[in-house]
Design brief:
about 80 residues; alpha+beta; two-stranded antiparallel ribbon
Amino acid sequence: MRNRNTYSEVFFNEEQRFRQLWLWAIIILASTIPWIGMIFQVILGHKFGNNPGPDWLIILMWLVFGIGLPIFFYSLKLITEV
């Protein structure tokens, strides 16, 4: 939230979002591992990795990193006011 005084005047206002291609390539790459684990272990029923975790942990990681991380970065923005 903005804290403005009644006598202040905004000279410059800028809003930035994270839409760089290189950043989204890293985010998508990082979120593919939980998607692969979810599909491979929970949906197909095969064990994912040498020491697989329980299905609830795979689902939790999928929700946090596979879905939550991209949504979080998409919703981030930086607002600058001078």
